[in-house]
Amino acid sequence: MSKLRVAVLGVKGRIGSEAVRAVEAAEDMELVAALGRGDKLETLADTGAQVAVELTTPASVMGNLDFCVRHGIHAVVGTTGWTDDRLAQLKGWLAQSPETGVLIAPNFSIGAVLTMKFAQLAAPYFESVEVVELHHPNKVDAPAARPRAPPSSSPRPAARRAALRSPTPR
User: Fold this and answer.
1) What's the CATH number where 39 sits?
2) Residue 111: what pLDDT?
3) Closest CA to 160 of 66, 168, 152, 75
4) 156, part of any domain
5) Which of the residues 56, 79, 119, 138 has the least number of beta carbons within 10 Å of its own beta carbon?
């Protein structure tokens, strides 16, 4: 069986470096590119990447995804800062390339995943809920691009009532 050819974008970040280690450790995956700021996206196509794990910044993600979709490279996105306008733009690109898939994972952090779960659990019992997740002080995209999940990722009405805020620790 051939290995899945994976590229990681954002390798200098905490999650990006972990993604590189995870791909290298996986028996059914081959790391074909590890890109950081300033590296050329053409490397993805040149290496035959089938999937890109996109872990960069809100300022870079749309250009990276445009490239991936235009080149038929599937993407798993852990970058934050999603808005309705950005999702609409991505859907437009995908409509032009229906064979390409993009999965947006609102957050790869166990802390963020648990925070969202806590908000879902608390929401039915309170009219208004706020759960605060603090980021490490060196997080590049906090707080301006806090890890807001795409609007469609919270299907339960009770979960929508929960407020999720991610300030930078003092």
Assistant:
1) 3.40.50.720
2) 78
3) 152
4) yes
5) 138
Residue 139 near residue 168, CB atoms below 8 Å: yes
Residues in the chain, overall count: 170
Specify whether 135 is catalytic: yes
Closest residue by Cα to residue 165 from 135, 125, 139, 123: 135
Beta bridge partners of 130: 163
User: What pTM, to 2 d.p., does this model score?
Assistant: 0.72
Per-residue confidence (pLDDT) for residue 115, from 0 to 100: 82
Number of domains, the chain: 2
Whether 91 is catalytic is: no
Q: Look at residue 76 and tell me if it is in a domain.
A: yes
Answer yes or no: are the C-beta atoms of 66 and 102 closer than 8 Å: no
29 domain-assigned: yes
Chunked mean pLDDT (size 10), the chain, 170 residues: 95 93 97 96 97 95 97 94 94 96 83 82 83 67 49 44 41
Q: Whose CA is closest to 69, among 107, 104, 37, 20?
A: 104
